[in-house]
Description:
The protein is an all-alpha fold. Helices cover 71% and strands 0% of the residues.
Amino acid sequence: MNPHQPPTPAAAAAPEPPAVTYVSEAKRLANIANAQLSSGPTSLDGKAKSSLNAVKTALTGRTVLLHTDDVAAYQQHVADYEKELRPVGQRECDLVQSIADSAWRLQRVPALEMAIYAQGRVQFANQFNDHESALRPSLIELHTSLIYEKQLRNLQIQESRLHRRREKDLAELRQAQSERRNRDTNNLETASRLLTQAERANKAFDSKEEAAFLTDLKTKIGGGFEFSLSDIQAYSAGGTVLEIGYTAFKRALIARNNTTETAISLGTAS
Length: 270
């Protein structure tokens, strides 16, 4: 009775040498003049708005952590997502990392929005001195929203983009885990049946017999079978397939890391 619910990169081509462009002296002088005219904002308002353009790079690009971010908090954040979503294999791990990064960036959006309005309160503190004091905070907030409309709109755009990306990654992860659950369920069901037959035959499972049993299973089921005897027993006892798969994956990672560390130690010693 079933108690369960069902890269080697290609060599890059040598870059072509850049084409040489000859510029006349008149054109060169014109370029210098244009560069001086485009050297950036000079007014206080302009410089303040320009400084907030960094809001874009905080939410896009490959760098997730800013220099002000707490690295330990970020690592715990990613670990919490891994613990909840239980990825197995490189594809699922990459998706969980992307989901965690999107969530981390989404947490930054409200703080950035608050920073814009905080800057506005400082920048426009004396802007409405001729109005009643009770009205000034609202007027400053309105003025800030108008002056920094582009930056605030950009935050909304980036927030929507991050939400879409997170939902897309979650849907892809669920699909990958569904496919894996179906595959692992079939494999564990077969393994559980064979284990039951062996136990009925009073077969003793010492370390040697266990290794032989698992080798025989891999031959019958296929090379993708990576479960241990304890995993099969956990399945027979009603354990969830995704949890068993995650446990087996983490165990394999630890064994691989230990093997690598041993090899490095031996290489250093020699």
